[in-house]
Each structure stands twice: as C-alpha cells, then as structure tokens.
Amino acid sequence: MNERPRIKLKLTTTDRIFEVLGWAFIIAVWILTITQFKSLPDTIPIHFSGAGHADGFGGKGYIFGLPLVASILFIGLTILNKFPYVFNYPTKITNDNALQQYTNATRMVRYLKCIVVFIFGLIALQTIRYGNGQTKGLGVWFVPLTLGLIFIPFIYFVVVSVKTKKQ
C-alpha cells in the first residue's frame, strides 16, 4: 500500500478561530446545562421526532448526556484531526497535493466539530426551554438548519478537494 506523506500542519488564523469557537461552544453548553439543571422539572424530553416534537421522556439527569456526548465527539474529532493522512479523500494523496488536501480536510473537521457542539447546544437549550414550559419542541426549523449547517459546507469542502486534485 502506498504510504501517504505525514506533514505537520501549521494552524492558520481560520483554523485557530474554529478551534476557539469549538471550545467556547463546549464551555457554553456545559455552563447552560449546569446553571439550568435546578430549574428543570423531574421529567424532561430525552428524544424528539423528526418533526421536532418530544416523543420520549426521562429524568432530568439525562440533560447532562447532551454536553457529555458533544464533548466526547469534540475531543475524538480533535484527536483524529491530528492524523489527516488516515482520512478518506476523493483523490490520491501525493507529495505534491498533500499539504493542500490535509489543510482542507482538517479545516472541514474543525468546522464540523463546531457545528456538532452547536447543534447539541441547541438541543440542550430547547430541552431546557421545553422543561420550563417555554416551547413545545425543537421547532420545525431544527432539521433543515442542522442539515444545512452540515451538508452545505461539507459539499463546499469536497468541491475544494476535487478542484485541488485538478491543479
């Protein structure tokens, strides 16, 4: 099997912004959850349907599952991002294109880390609001927003990767 080049990437300003935003989102989700825990009723929604309606309920301690899963995903993706040579690419990685491909791919992962934590934060916020009687679910906007935040940038990063291949 052909060995891909292992390159130490330097973080650009954009990369640093995504990292800082991601950590800020993680901290914000934990602060939101911890500070609002006492105000929650004993039973809260723990699952929402595709239409955004609560359809599963459990004890209020389940609210900590959202920042916990978000943190695990964020940390896992942070670790994975240190090894861009193991990623799948839409093109063959060579010494000539590795820097551009790795930079693009790691930036995509940084963006996705932020979005995943942001989405978990929105779910936590809406769960807290539901528990406090301020809303009846996630809202009809939640699924389209989530899909747009994930797939539109994902398509952009794939297009950039394919265009890099042609250069």
Describe it.
Strands 1-2 form a two-stranded antiparallel sheet. 59% of the residues lie in helices and 7% in strands. The chain starts with 12 loop residues before the first helix and ends with a helix. The mean pLDDT is 93. The protein is elongated. The protein has one domain (13-166). It is built from 4 helices and 2 strands. With 167 residues, it is mostly helical.
Summary?
By secondary structure, the chain is mostly helical. It has four helices and two strands; from the N terminus they run αββααα.
State the share of residues found in helices, binned by percent. 55-70%
**Number of structural domains:** 1
How much of the sequence lies in strands comes to: 5-15%
Structural class based on helices, strands and sheet pairing: mainly alpha
Q: How many strands appear in the DSSP assignment?
A: 2
The N- and C-terminal alpha carbons lie at a distance of 24 Å
pLDDT averaged over residues: 93
The largest β sheet comes out as: 2 strands, antiparallel
H/E element order = HEEHHH
What descriptors fit this protein?
mainly alpha, two-stranded antiparallel ribbon, 2 strands
Protein topology:
Elements: H1 13-36, E1 43-48, E2 54-59, H2 65-80, H3 98-131, H4 142-166
Antiparallel strand pairs: 1-2
